[in-house]
Write a structure and sequence with these properties.
Strand order of the largest sheet: 3-4-2-5-6-1-7
Family: Belongs to the DEAD box helicase family.
Structural class: alpha/beta
CATH superfamily of the largest domain: P-loop containing nucleotide triphosphate hydrolases
Oligomer: single chain
CATH architecture of the largest domain: 3-Layer(aba) Sandwich
Protein name: DEAD/DEAH box helicase
GO cellular component, one term: cytosol
Order of helices and strands: HHEHEHEHEHEHHEHEEHEHEHEEHEH
InterPro entries: DEAD/DEAH_box_helicase_dom, DEAD/DEAH_RhlB, DEAD_box_RNA_helicase, Helicase_ATP-bd, Helicase_C-like, P-loop_NTPase, RNA_helicase_DEAD_Q_motif
GO molecular function: ATP binding; hydrolase activity; nucleic acid binding; RNA helicase activity
Amino acid sequence: MKTFKDLGLAEPILRAVEKEGYENPTPIQADVIPALMEGKDVLGIAQTGTGKTAAFVLPLLHWIRESKDRPVKRGCSALILAPTRELAAQINESIRTYSRFMQCSTALVVGGARPGPQIQAIARGVDIIVATPGRLMDHMAAGKVRLDFVESFVLDEADQMLDMGFMPAIRKIVAALPRDRQTVLLSATMPKPIRALAQDILIDPQEISVSPSSRPIEQIEQRIMHVQKTGKRDALVGILRGAEVERTVVFTRTKRGADKVCEHLEKAGLAAAAIHGDKSQGQRERALQAFKKGKVATLVATDIAARGIDIDGVTHVVNFELPNVPEAYVHRIGRTGRAGKSGVAISLCDHTEKGLLRDIERLIGRRIGDPDGSAPIEDDRSQGPRGKPRGNRGGFGGKPNPKNRNRNRNNKPQQRRGPAAPAAPAAPAAKAGPDGSQGLRRK
């Protein structure tokens, strides 16, 4: 079995990993980290809770430590996009954790927070920007951030980006990036629009899949409770008062529904907090911190938080309402059973949701609550896309092509980065990007 020391990561990063108590990489880390260290594009298919954040953060930090370049003003060397504020904040926290013994500047760019501090944070240039698409587009439109020197680009939870309607924004952001970059696209599922996006933005990627698409991890015990719609709140109170229930995430379909469930639980004497899109960033952070510290044992959330809650010790997930999109079920229950631990997922199903239940069971290939049951599963994944190779590039430790080292967009030698020059026709070996730019490679 591989250890993190076998992956060639820099000593300060290994020290941080060891301090977190990790010695052996997860399957996706063991596959993704070497590919990124070699400078390849990666298309990763992995469920939530498999350790994929560290899979791209660790080689990214290695690359930053080995580089001697400084990011340009208002720019960054690496860009990470996430669909929700919670997930972006989680990724940013992971970067800080794993870079504690090295120098690495980051900026968190998300909605629901004042834009002024974000603009100030990136004004001098930072190594990594972690952003949600909407707020990043706002800063781009205002001329407060530039992306033409990004050398490594990570698109995390791409399928949720699709569900939330971010694809037009994603393509505009990609168009502002240099063509000559390293790109990582990570997704729990691979619907056709995401496959098409991967074919457009990745070049000769290494496709890595650590488990069947949309299959819940085996450590989670899945249960179903058939109840009347009017009896769901009392059923939920009964579940939460169970002796084995310690820390629970409850999912509703709507923001108003989350608030109502939270109010009902508090009236029943159960400490709870709600988190959804109508809450300010400060309110959402306070609710998450209260849940993490055990001040409240129940967090009521909408699907916007399904992939942004990475908290140890969640023993139960309760689907107060079944999701309209069956894939969301997988991400919801993935809040428990993390890091190899067991967990319990309980779904409350009324007669109007039986069709949604059948869709979920068809997706996961089994009857919920019946370990021996089965249902047909559809898997439309095709072979990975193949693009035109572009040779060795900078980013994530990839070695730059000597022929293009220290050249700007006019192919003139330069000592350090500065303002981008107007785009010039590309050399025959390189293909111009969507914006006509070529980008730079690290030394």
